[in-house]
Amino acid sequence: MIEGLRPDFVLAFVLLGVTIILVVARVVGNLAVRIGQPRVVGEIVAGILLGPSLLGIKTLAWDGSWSVLQCDASRSWMPVGADPAAFAARPESISNCLFPLQAQGTLAIIGQLALVFFMFLVGSELDFDSLRGRVGGIVTMALGVVIVPIALALVIGPILHGERFALAAPDGSLPDTLAFSLFLAAMLAVTAVPVMARILQEKGLTTSPMGAIGVAAAAIVTVLMFILLAVAKGVNAGNSAGEHAMVFIGTAIYLAVMFGVVRPLLAPMGRRIATAGTVDNPSFVAAIIVAIGSAYIADRIGINVIVGGFVAGAIMPARHVFFEKASERLSEVTASVLLPIFLAFSGLRTDFTTLGWVWLPGIALFLVVGIAAKWGGGAVAARVGGLSWAEGNVLGILMNCRGLLVLVVGLAAADAKVITPQMQVGAVVMALVTTAMTGPLFDRFIGRATTDERTEPLQQV
After folding, report:
1. Is there a domain that residue 458 lies in?
2. What separation in angstroms does the CA of 137 have from each of 22, 107, 173?
3. How confident is the model over 164-201, as pLDDT tens digits?
4. Which residue of 91, 166, 174, 205 shows the fewest CB atoms closer than 10 Å?
């Protein structure tokens, strides 16, 4: 193998890739909004269209690529640990040439930063005042929508554990059944906190008992889910019980330090923000430093940068002023520029052309069980936690929305070499179906859960 793309070409292809991603994401995202779907659905589809599903060799043959794309050089670069024989046979395609692997590494990093900032904004929007006196309902809801998916994943895991969905090692051995099932459990347990929070906010229900319990429970679910993902990685790597325990101990210490030490240290900054009614530049930079540092620590613990970003947002002082002013600077570039890059990167790793009829029953089982676990589990847990069946049904619908977080878990499972490309496609299908069904179902059932005259038809985001 030769050295591959020169460094200056890697930069050029990163810039080209970002340009293409933003144009396609904007076009397809606008189309999704026009048909009443959240923009994120269109952006996920945009990523799929840029990947091998449409621009791969199986769908669009390309005889003789343009020399300016440096396809020969990009094909010659082999990542560490790759199978030389398999990599040498890697076909030339439009997708591979537009997004060479060397450039994809940088796109992946940009995507991770997007997730950190996105979850930082979600955390900073969380209203703690509305959570007082509702701890029991919140904990019950959170545990319900995590335990039920885990239990069902342990049931379907052995059924799906085979060469179609569990990735075999070069020697033909399959990953541990428990590790495979735990990765499935993490995918089933995901809840798209941002989508839930935004829908409830638009309906004026954020501070209602239903809204407060739902958003707080979804936040706890996100932390628990990434702990579960860390355990799945540990089981797959053969970690000892002590190493697993360190994840839980590290998480507990991290949360205690963030809320018990860092949050009080930020209090003077909060008083300055509250007095001025705005977020000055030093305060904004300090907040970004806290977010990135928190993400780094969370990543080192093994619970993902997403948790770090969310916790950093949750400890920000002068919350109402901070979110209103800081989001003006950060939300547009994060939601409109950075997040589409992550979604496109996921699409570049997803190939629907690998599917055949033999894979469809397994993916259908995964999808049906996932919907039942979150929708049904959420409804029952909310009822046990003190809400009505109508409110529980609505929260179950919102908890069922996976958004982009299931893509994060799917990529983690693929990188751990536990699931096949076809199972990763299943994660993408889960993201698309559950996110697309959330808005219409919410509009259908919200009238039974509340008689608030301020309620208006849902505006998708």
Report:
1. no
2. 41, 40, 44
3. 899 888 888 889 999 999 999 999 999 887 677 767 76
4. 91
